Write a sequence for this structure.
């Protein structure tokens, strides 16, 4: 099976994919849209992309691509612990306190906001397509006194020196990665499985009636279906127009879930089922 992931090698996504799939052919892509397009064109059979981080929230490009651009399905969720380290080229190993620039993925920079503010205020921060892309850049530019933020696998792979470890602002730092497929499927992986979930994307009825969101929530609440997430994202049709992403701690097989979706449709909502899948825990090492 060919599996696309947000690369290059040694990204957090790569780490999660390596743990989840034992025999896949892993293929790195530069951006999240590149990963998803490789799936829709048939170049790969699965794609793994970051969906949400415990400190920084959703990865908007992933969520918006799944709603607006493509018709693909979540087949599994991988939850991985995230530890961020500051790394430099060994050439600058003794001068790293005089850095001129720090590079990383936008989510990684945000996860280390307090550290960067108190330790490196005023130093330019540059976004890269991934943490490992930043590490690779640093390894290729010893003449620049620049650092990357990323994981220890990236430091090893690109020969960088970790000068400060665990610089993320809050201890509980985890990221959810979505495994995506063109077809509806449920992937059974070799990791510890914790629960079953379903993700729905819901658009409210177009008449904009008061209480519509309350009606949506009550379809779940009176059936005692537990929600682990609700988030609104712009429909991109005008200010104040949103769709809702709702995660339910249930498989779609249950009669209550089917009833809830029927009720939402009867209320005039549009419901897109993004997936009904198992949640897996990725070990640190
Ligand atoms: O940039 C990476 O390494 C990724 O895989 C995306 C990401 C960035 C920050 C935290 C978790 C995942």
């Amino acid at each position: 099976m060919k599996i696309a992931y947000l690369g290059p090698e040694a990204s957090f996504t790569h780490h999660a994919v390596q743990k989840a799939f034992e025999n896949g052919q892993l293929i790195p892509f530069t951006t999240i849209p590149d990963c998803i397009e490789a799936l829709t064109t048939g170049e790969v059979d699965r794609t793994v992309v970051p969906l949400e981080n415990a400190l920084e929230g959703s990865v908007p490009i992933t969520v918006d691509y799944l709603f607006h651009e493509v018709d693909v399905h979540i087949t599994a969720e991988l939850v991985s612990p995230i530890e961020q380290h500051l790394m430099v080229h060994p050439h600058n190993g003794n001068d790293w306190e005089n850095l001129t620039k720090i590079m990383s993925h936008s989510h990684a920079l945000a996860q280390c906001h307090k550290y960067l503010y108190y330790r490196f205020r005023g130093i330019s921060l540059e976004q890269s397509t991934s943490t490992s892309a930043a590490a690779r850049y640093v390894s290729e530019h010893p003449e620049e006194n620049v650092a990357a933020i990323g994981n220890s696998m990236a430091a090893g792979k690109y020969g960088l020196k970790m000068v400060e470890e665990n610089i993320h602002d809050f201890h509980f730092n985890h990221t959810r990665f979505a495994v995506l497929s063109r077809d509806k499927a449920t992937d059974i992986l070799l990791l510890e499985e914790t629960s079953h979930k379903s993700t729905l994307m819901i658009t409210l009825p177009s008449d904009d009636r008061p209480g519509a969101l309350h009606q949506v929530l009550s379809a779940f609440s009176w059936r005692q279906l537990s929600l682990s997430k609700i988030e609104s994202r712009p429909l991109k049709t005008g200010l104040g127009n949103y769709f809702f992403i709702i995660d339910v701690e249930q498989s779609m097989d249950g009669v209550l879930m089917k009833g809830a979706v029927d009720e939402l449709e009867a209320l005039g909502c549009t419901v897109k089922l993004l997936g009904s899948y198992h949640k897996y825990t990725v070990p640190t090492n």
Summary: The chain has nine helices and 15 strands. Residues 6, 11-13, 50, 53, 82, 105, 107-108, 130-132, 175 surround 3-phenylpyruvic acid (CB under 6 Å).
